[in-house]
């Protein structure tokens, strides 16, 4: 089979398409013919060499995978060849204590696809059958690839939040990005008044269409002043930050007393400064979130199937054009997720 290998990361990364043997599946695994694979900042940070922990090269990237089951192990009963599936980003065992608690992204025997194991930028990929979720025919391959990440990740993050009281406000940064545009929809569905932050006013009509109550374009004045003006200096009850350090401390300054800031993204890897006295006197909570459980992916499939959530794919690129995709990521015109498709289909 063909696979796209990242041979070396850095300013001038080197990729190579290689012919390698088909993965040999174990009794609890399935072989999937890859149809589409999402591309996000996690991939870009590995390509640039900024994300190094647990990564070895050469590496086949790709953790947002949709495809067709072509073979199953002898102990697999729930999936058969021909089934359409989306994969968990972490190939989980389904048997350990964490999997039993629906913490499949913390599986004791978990394998991070596209990070420390072969990912989806290949003709075929193998996963444990537990880590594949069936998808209905009315969800296209490109849309299916982003059911786990970013949609399931957003669902999982919002599961940390209590149902909002009347008029509670959620601020979402990077609202036009692959994760942000789906958080807008999910936060609105949960009952928040959604204020979306974007860097480009051309995205405003679509972000409003996706459910935002108000769009704030991040300009020189700093969006925290605008958020505090909108909320009569009360601040936002919830901030879902998909950008990270480039928007600090604006995100923290937008937070209400006793508010919750959930960090889901970090696009540059820069350090931030935090005055702990401000955190103490604000009584706020700052937490990070990564990964997605199987239950959240099952729910995201259901929501998309019922057309309650709209998967937003901005552009598709052939897998061999991954460097073009990487350059496009973060483009001010980007609205939604980038998806890669195998050239050899």
- Poorly predicted regions are none
**Euclidean distance between termini CA atoms:** 12 Å
Count of distinct structural domains: 2
Biggest beta sheet summary: 7 strands, mixed
Average pLDDT over all residues: 94
Helix content: 10-25%
In total, how many beta strands? 17
Number of helices in the DSSP assignment:
11
Percent in strands:
25-35%
The CATH homologous superfamily of the largest domain corresponds to Medium-chain alcohol dehydrogenases, catalytic domain
CATH class of the largest domain: Alpha Beta
Please name the CATH topology of the largest domain.
Quinone Oxidoreductase, Chain A, domain 1
Shape: globular
- Which structural class fits the helix and strand makeup? alpha/beta
What is the radius of gyration? 20 Å
CATH architectural label of the largest domain: Alpha-Beta Complex
SSE string, helices as H and strands as E: EEEHEEEHEEEHHEHEHEHEHEHEHEHE
Keywords: Metal-binding, Oxidoreductase, Zinc
Domain Enoyl reductase (ER): 10-340
Cofactor: Zn(2+)
InterPro entries: ADH-like_C, ADH-like_N, ADH_Zn_CS, ER, GroES-like_sf, NAD(P)-bd_dom_sf
SSE layout:
Blueprint: E1 2-8, E2 14-19, E3 29-39, H1 41-48, E4 64-72, E5 84-87, E6 90-91, H2 97-100, E7 111-112, E8 124-128, E9 132-134, H3 141-145, H4 147-158, E10 169-172, H5 180-190, E11 193-198, H6 204-209, E12 214-217, H7 223-230, E13 236-241, H8 250-253, E14 255-263, H9 276-282, E15 285-288, H10 294-305, E16 313-318, H11 322-328, E17 337-341
Parallel strand pairs: 10-11, 10-13, 11-12, 13-14, 14-15, 16-17
Antiparallel strand pairs: 1-2, 3-4, 3-8, 3-17, 4-5, 5-9, 6-7
Helix pairs in contact: 4-5, 4-10
């Amino acid at each position: 089979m063909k696979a796209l290998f990242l041979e070396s990361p850095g300013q001038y990364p080197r990729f190579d398409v290689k012919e390698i043997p088909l993965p040999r599946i174990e009794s609890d695994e399935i072989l999937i013919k890859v149809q589409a694979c999402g591309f996000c900042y996690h991939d870009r940070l590995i390509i640039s060499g900024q994300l190094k922990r647990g990564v070895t090269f050469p590496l086949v990237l790709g953790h947002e995978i949709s495809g067709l089951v072509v073979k199953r192990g002898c102990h697999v009963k729930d999936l058969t060849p021909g089934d359409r599936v989306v994969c968990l980003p972490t190939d989980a065992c389904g048997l350990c204590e964490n999997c039993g608690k629906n913490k499949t992204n913390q599986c004791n025997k978990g394998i991070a696809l596209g990070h420390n194991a072969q990912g989806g930028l290949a003709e075929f990929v193998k996963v444990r059958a537990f880590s594949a979720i069936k998808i209905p025919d009315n969800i296209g391959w490109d849309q299916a690839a982003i059911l786990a990440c970013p949609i399931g990740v957003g669902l999982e993050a919002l599961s940390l939040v209590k149902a909002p009281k009347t008029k509670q406000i959620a601020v979402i940064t990077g609202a036009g990005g692959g994760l942000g545009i789906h958080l807008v929809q999910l936060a609105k569905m949960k009952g928040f008044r959604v204020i979306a932050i974007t860097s480009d006013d051309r995205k405003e009509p679509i972000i409003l269409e996706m459910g935002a109550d108000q769009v704030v374009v991040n300009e020189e004045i700093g969006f925290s002043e605008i958020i505090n003006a909108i909320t009569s200096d009360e601040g936002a009850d919830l901030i879902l930050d998909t950008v990270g350090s480039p928007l600090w401390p604006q995100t923290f300054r937008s937070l209400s007393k006793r508010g919750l800031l959930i960090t889901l993204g970090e696009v540059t890897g820069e350090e931030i400064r935090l005055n702990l006295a401000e955190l103490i006197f604000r009584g706020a909570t700052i937490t990070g979130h990564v990964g997605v459980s199987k239950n959240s992916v099952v729910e995201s499939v259901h929501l998309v199937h019922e057309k309650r959530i709209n998967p937003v794919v901005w552009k598709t690129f052939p897998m061999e054009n991954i460097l073009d995709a990487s350059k496009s990521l973060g483009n001010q015109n980007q609205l939604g997720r980038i998806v890669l498709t195998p050239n050899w289909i």
